[in-house]
Every structure is written in structure tokens, then in C-alpha cells.
Amino acid sequence: MDSREFRNAMGKFATGVTVITTNDGTNTHGMTANAFMSISLDPKLITISIDNKANMLQKIKASGQYAVNFLSDKQQDISMNFAGQKKKEDGVDFGDVQGVPVIKDALASVVCDVDQEIVVGDHTLFIGKVKDVKVTEGNPLTFYCGKYGDYRQKEYA
What we know:
CATH superfamily: Electron Transport, Fmn-binding Protein, Chain A
Structural class: alpha+beta
CATH class: Mainly Beta
Strand order of the largest sheet: 3-2-6-9-10-5-4
Distance between the termini: 41 Å
Order of helices and strands: HEEEEEHEHEEEEEE
Oligomer: single chain
Largest sheet: 7 strands, antiparallel
EC number: 1.-.-.-
Keywords: Oxidoreductase
Domain Flavin reductase like: 10-150
GO molecular function, one term: oxidoreductase activity
Strand content: over 45%
Protein name: Flavin reductase family protein
């Protein structure tokens, strides 16, 4: 199997859309990602997967902290901005939770200190110890087969 076929298969898994944010002491940085998961409630741990060639890798290593921001269905432009697909015309509004930049009005922002780094293949997994969360109401932005979508709850008979 070639890499394109593998990538197409992975695209069949519908995900929410996140933006990973961090601050290098001078500037706020963000990266759109869907490689995120919750791994433990006690202690509270999550993980993100960052390509070893991504600029964000060194920024997280240097700061030792990051936030995972779950985007709402009204924030596709923010995702596209941090994915390098389309510059957001009016810029991105950031908030701050315990010194870590977060996307304003995201459905949730999970703020972490890096607990472990694990290099696996061409990515690095950052396991984060959760320091705080911020939650708002709304519907999630989704991603499936390379396209953005929205969430619709199914009715059961």
C-alpha cells in the first residue's frame, strides 16, 4: 500500500477539528490538527501528535505547554488559517488560560503542561498533563474525507 492510499483510509475516520496553541514567550503560535485524544482521567492526560517537520514541534518543546482548542462549526475560517489554507482576514482572537493562549469562543480549550514526549515514526506524541479547561456551548466543526462538515444528531425511533 502506498502513502496516499493509507492517508485516504485515515480520512474515512470523521473527527472534530482542533487548533493546538502555544506561546514561545514572544509570539502566539497555532496549528490545525485532528490527531488528538484523551488518554486518562486520573491523572488527567491527553495526547497530540505533531509531524517531526512541523514548525510547531520546536515551539511546544521550548514552551513545555500547549492548549488543544476544539473548534465550533462557526470557526472553519480559524481552522483554515492555521492549516495554511486561507488567511483569516480579521485575525484570530486569543484568550489566556493559566498563561497559555487559547482560541476565543472555542467549544473547549484544554490547557496542558508537557508530561512526556515520545517519538514514533515521523511524528512526536506530546502527552499533556491537564492544568485547566474552558468550555462553551455550540456545535463542533467536523472533518471527513478532506472536507469540513458539521454535526447533526440522529434521532432514534
